[in-house]
Amino acid sequence: MSARELAKDQPASFAFNAEYLERAKKVIAKYPAGRQASAVIPLLDFAQRQEGWVTRPAIEAIAKMLDMAAIRVLEVATFYTMFNLAPVGKTHIQVCTSLSCAVRGAGDVLKTCKDKLGIDAGDVTADKAFSLIEVECSGACVNAPVVQIGDDYYEDVDPASMAKLIDAFKRGETPKYGSMIGRDGSAPAGEPITLTEDPTKPIPKQDLAAAKAAFEKAKAEAAAKAAAPKA
Ligand code: FES
Asked: What are the tens digits of pLDDT across the range 50-66?
């Protein structure tokens, strides 16, 4: 993943609009006096939702609101890939390429994005319709490979389904999020291989009797072995 730094071109100023200012005040009020810095992530998120990305003036304004050094807010913004440090496309695609996704084919998914959009990771298309980045673990490894588009997770993605997703967004649609192979949440892919019997079904009596007999036999054999004279 490339180094994360703020875009060179920055707006002159930033101020929360009425809606986000209200929301920011509510979040800050959740923390005791002197602990307002705990609100830094939600406030960065609000700034991004309002502006589309996290600008330097937004970082400075948030630092002031939370009584923090601006560098500390910048550290948080640059650490998390959820924060865009430069303007992104209308459809922002984040491909997870960490271990679980990598072994399940994330490399091919990323290549599909690059080929179809004609851009590299970290770039925005000329018409500003799409942007693409590579991210570390998206926290949904069991459904790898995972691609986040906007606020939604698309899971069990492969090159074919990724291509279809991009085509749908190009048409202005918002495809249904979740598993691309119809998995039920994080249930195992394919047929279940454990717990295949109905757990509510009572255990047949003869099974209990057989188990008890096997246990008694093993117990008797162990006792006989222990009592046998040592050779
Ligand atoms: S490794 Fe991709 S979601 Fe965890």
From this structure: 999 999 999 999 999 99
